[in-house]
Amino acid sequence: MSVSKRFLPAVTVVGHPQPLTRSELASFLNVSVRTIDGYVLSRRIPYIRLGRLLRFRVQDVERALKRYTIEEVSI
Predict the structure, then answer these.
(1) Chain centroid to CA 47: how far?
(2) pTM of this prediction?
(3) Torsion angle, alpha carbons of 6, 12, 17, 21, to 10
(4) What is d(CA 34, CA 32) in angstroms, rounded to the nearest whole number?
(5) Is residue 56 part of a domain?
(6) How many structural domains is the chain composed of?
(7) For residue 73, is it within any domain?
(8) Is residue 75 part of a domain?
């Protein structure tokens, strides 16, 4: 009996969540896919290239975007 790949569950190793697609990352960050594309082109966020596909590790993206965080300064 043949099983289609699209019905197989994603395999996740404990402690290593599966990398996200562009649209999944956009939803996670609450931005558009075009914004993600801009971040990739300007090399603001790290990514994994698998042929023509891009994948993103959430912890790497969050670490990269932290440098754009502006801390509140009390006077």
Answers:
(1) 7
(2) 0.73
(3) -20
(4) 5
(5) yes
(6) 1
(7) no
(8) no
- DSSP character string of 47-66: -EEETTEEEB-HHHHHHHHH
Which residues fall within 8 angstroms of residue 56, CB to CB, at 6 or more apart? Answer: 19, 20, 21, 22, 25, 45, 46, 47, 48
How many residues can be counted in the chain? Answer: 75
pLDDT at 40: 97
Compute CA 34 distance to the chain's CA centroid, rounded to the nearest angstrom: 13
Joined tokens for residue 74: 């009390």
Distance, CA of 68 to CA of 29 (rounded, Å):
14
Considering the domain boundaries, does residue 1 fall inside one? no
One digit per residue, pLDDT tens: the chain, 75 residues?
Answer: 555 555 555 555 566 689 999 999 999 999 999 999 999 999 999 999 999 999 999 999 999 999 988 888 887
Q: Which of 28, 32, 31 is nearest to 60 (CA)?
A: 28
